[in-house]
């Protein structure tokens, strides 16, 4: 994802299928989450992505992407921001995005990571993790 792209909200057949399953489970008394509440959560998550005006142009750098395997076998995205002029003996920074374990992602705060490595001259390693409520505690901690 580039700094000018937005994360597309979940829609179309995926959303309709998810809503149908949610309503069916609620009718059976298996689920306590209504389809309306589920849709509101997904819309809130999509809205939590910073707007394009917040994503300032990033300094020139090398950004390396990688994927690690988590404890549960899922893919964990990792980004390494490499400064143009690294300082000798600079300690790398491990960056875990905010969002209360329910919002955000490895790409959501690129402007902050680039500001850190540009000012400090050190490598910044941003790590993604699984988000609640789809992945309840302690999934995010296990990923990090």
Automatic annotation (TrEMBL):
Gene3D superfamilies: alpha/beta hydrolase
Keywords: Hydrolase
InterPro entries from the UniProt entry: AB_hydrolase_3, AB_hydrolase_fold, GDXG_lipolytic_enzyme
GO molecular function: hydrolase activity
Pfam families the UniProt entry points to: Abhydrolase_3
Domain Alpha/beta hydrolase fold-3 stretches: 93-144
Family matches, as PANTHER family: AB HYDROLASE SUPERFAMILY PROTEIN C4A8.06C (PTHR48081), ALPHA_BETA HYDROLASE FOLD-3 DOMAIN-CONTAINING PROTEIN-RELATED (PTHR48081:SF8)
Protein name (database record): Alpha/beta hydrolase fold
Lineage: Bacteria, Pseudomonadati, Pseudomonadota, Gammaproteobacteria, Nevskiales
